[in-house]
Amino acid sequence: MKKLVVLSGAGISAESGISTFRDNGGLWDNFRIEDVATPEAWQRNQELVLDFYNQRRKQAANVKPNAAHDALVELEKDFDVTIITQNVDNLHEIAGSSNVIHLHGELFKSRSTKNPDLVYEMSSWELKTGDLCELGSQLRPHIVWFGEEVPMMEIAMEVTEEADIFVVVGTSLAVYPAAGLVHYVGADKPIYIIDPAKPDISLKPNMTFIQEKATTGMEILIKNITNK
Description:
Layout: E1 3-8, H1 10-14, H2 33-36, H3 39-44, H4 46-60, H5 67-74, E2 80-85, H6 91-95, E3 100-102, E4 105-112, E5 119-121, E6 139-143, H7 153-161, E7 165-169, E8 191-194, E9 207-210, H8 214-226
Parallel strand pairs: 1-2, 1-7, 2-3, 7-8, 8-9
Antiparallel strand pairs: 4-5, 4-6
Helix pairs in contact: 5-8
């Protein structure tokens, strides 16, 4: 069975109603990165950071996977599928995808500020000051903030190198190091890039662009790679 590796981004979740960070009207129009998504922000104003992610969690708890998420599940019938996602929501998992790597953390998990290996599933959308890990230290969002290392990146690189087909969906390939994964795809392996706007990247002969939103683009992709 051929190995299909998918890099997904905010565009796939946007069609479910989750606000993106970079578009007009996106999250960064209302918040500065420096105020809510850096280690310094956490040190400076823990309450603001907790509230920001509480609101993201509350929103994400009320949305459902869309046809693009479902299409990736469907592809598991024909391919060995691994999804590498820049998204922190759990829509891939809710849809039923069985192998998901979260590069930027997971919204519905918290972790210890004392030991980053202590990660906990969250039973509600709210994380408060005074919520402690088993070592007695404050819990923080299990999110990779700007300026922090991306711990799953090496695994993502290894998976990408093994891809027979590589698909990019819902990301403009503007966020590094995730955007650099396209350079780990074998030169003889096809790369499909699904995005309404053509990403500003170095073109390769093995790239095919599908300039559509995620749901429409996934329909086209499935016809291209499965002959269905």
